[in-house]
Specification:
6 helices; 2 domains; five-stranded mixed barrel; three-stranded antiparallel sheet; single chain; alpha+beta; de novo design (two linked rop proteins); about 260 residues; OB fold (Dihydrolipoamide Acetyltransferase, E2P)
Length: about 260
């Protein structure tokens, strides 16, 4: 039996679990039931049915809001796609602080990226810790640092990000040198392999953004939070990371459009 599991009355068919989790999204099922997608710390992404959740607040209360940090009690049955969600205990709610449009857009971005990138029932503790750390920073100030940090680190943790310190084609060091990227290839290339005249025209990644990427991979988000983060800072780095995510997902994400309107 796995850690965090306890036997039910029918242990051979049902496993009852409790786990720290973050709610990603929910949608209606039948008249009052909801399907909820959770990112659990112990069991990865789990989808389950919250019975009568649309009518009764007794077991779930306000815990079904996206990006709510909860302790989830749920049951998994062999050969069933959906879990049975029993109750959630709120550990931290995004509604504890005012949610303006920029913060709502950032929270929606985190939720969409995780919903699309994470496979079901595959734990990713590093991604879970990343999510909690950026959620904390969205409460503290500008959204642009946590959004940039999350997009870049998620791409890396999914194994989709090559070494950014060297040209993807020739391997030359990009330290202090111009670097370029485009939507149809991984990584960065040097000026010698950038082809502005081709149909694969790319975008430049500013030297400041290259240096910032190095800092992001070496520092927790709290170490960067005290700096000024206007919208234009590292906009090219965010675009690079989001394009990398979309390329590997093979679809366009919708929430970056909301961020672009800010």
């Amino acid at each position: 039996m796995l850690a965090g599991e306890r036997p039910s009355a029918c242990a051979s068919a049902m496993i009852v679990r409790q786990s720290e989790a973050v709610v990603l999204r929910s949608w209606p099922l039948h008249e009052a039931d909801l399907i909820v997608s959770l990112f659990t710390r112990d069991g990865g992404k789990v989808k389950g049915v919250a019975k009568a959740a649309a009518k009764s607040r007794r077991r779930f209360g306000g815990a079904l809001e996206p990006m709510t940090h909860v302790r989830a009690h749920y049951a998994l049955k062999a050969n069933r796609e959906l879990a049975r969600l029993d109750s959630f205990e709120i550990l931290r709610s995004p509604l504890c602080e005012p949610v303006d449009y920029p913060r709502a857009a950032a929270l929606a971005f985190f939720a969409e990226v995780l919903e699309e990138t994470l496979p079901d029932h595959d734990p990713h503790d590093a991604v879970f810790r990343l999510l909690l750390s950026v959620l904390e920073q969205t409460r503290a100030g500008s959204i642009w640092m946590p959004v940039t940090y999350f997009a870049l680190w998620t791409t890396r943790l999914m194994g989709w990000l090559p070494d950014l310190g060297h040209c993807l084609i020739c391997g030359v060091s990009l330290t202090g040198e111009p670097a370029f990227f485009h939507a149809h290839a991984d990584g960065l290339v040097c000026g010698g392999h950038h082809r502005p005249e081709s149909e694969m025209r790319g975008s430049a990644l500013a030297l400041d953004s290259q240096r910032l990427a190095v800092r992001i991979f070496r520092s927790p988000p709290s170490a960067l939070a005290g700096e000024a983060w206007p919208r234009h800072r590292a906009a090219d780095l965010r675009r690079f990371a989001i394009q990398s995510l979309e390329r590997h997902l093979e679809r366009k994400l919708t929430t970056p459009m909301a961020l672009a309107r800010l």
